Amino acid sequence: MQMWNLSFGFFGVQIAYALQSANISRIFATLGADPHDLSFFWILPPMMGMIVQPLVGTWSDKTWCRWGRRKPYLYLGALVAVAVMAFLPNAGSLGLSVKMAMMFGLVMLMMLDTSINMAMQPFKMMVGDMVNERQKAEAYSIQSLLCNAGSLVGYLFPYLFTWIGISNIAPEGVIPDSVIYSFYVGAAILILCVLYTGMSVKEMPPQEYAAFHDIAQTSEPERRNLLSLLAGAPKAFWQIGLVQFFSWFAFLYMWNYTTGGIADNVWGTTDTASAGYQEAGNWVGVLFAVQAIGSVAWAVVLPMFRNVKWGYALSLLLGGAGFVSTYAIHDQHLLFVSFLLIGCGWAAMLAMPFALLTNSLSGGSMGAYLGLFNCTICLPQIIAALCGGFILRLVGGGQIMMLVVAGVSMVLAAVSVPMRGAG
Description:
With 423 residues, the protein is mainly alpha-helical. It has helices at 2-31, 44-61, 71-87, 98-130, 133-163, 177-200, 206-212, 226-231, 235-265, 275-301, 308-325, 335-358, 366-373, 375-394, 400-416.
């Protein structure tokens, strides 16, 4: 029960993250953003992740106060996220010009991603702080379950609110009520879940923490800067980093262009004010939920592979096939197959890179290398965002073609999986 309490707030945080992932392109397109510029709005989330997560980790390591060690950052991140979730979907309802509405939305997006990252990291660190080695795998499994459950709820909210009768259309440049209410309810669940974890978990005081981790009996860790760590990084760090580049490059385009691509390919519209486009936006949330279900199911299959690397490569190939297949599918329900396949790739991306990397690392610099490895998640998304408009023009301007580009990138990721060596 205590392991459940440690991670329960993660359910609410993940709802906020899912609402952001599934609706940001829809929001900015509705506000009037050109499809060729949409990718630029996706530079901020990975950039803020690269900055915020290492800082929260470093600062919270040195924080001991009456509220705890990690929890002050959890509370601050959650409070800011709740405030921003109330403002962001109303960017088109404040009487601002199109340019000012998008600027306001951009500032809100930056604050939302900063606060989500600030609220997300403490959950991972508290498990590391308070759970012994024997139970840690179980604790992280509970966290993964809550993560996927939160994603499902967040993805489905706009669809469910439309189903119960809340309007899914609005005047041009205004976000529909179905999306606005989704953010409101998501914010309420977020703060309640975080408060539950905050009230049910008591972090260890410094002396107990030191005794639990046997810190007094360990030697002073070697001080090495990040550049020297990179220079001495094991070969697997760079090999798996290349796989990460192509796979995360692909998923940035899924989050960015799925709404516009599906609206055009299935509903036959690119008019962001139309009922068809907004219905497509709701359906994308359903498809992302299907992807999450596929990810959970494939995560059960992955341990059955005797060779981890072959399982990793096959998963990425299945994900690539799912992306490419969206081009030929014009029925909204047949897209379930595509996104179940994409879920196979996602399941491998969440587990396999860290399993392969940690097997090649010694314990001394494990944390530093994992922090650096986070850049292999963030940097490809930034590069993909910067190149998005150019690639969209190159493939003819159809947003569904960007999912084909994502599929090709996933195939390149699969080919890049290093097959030599054990595993």
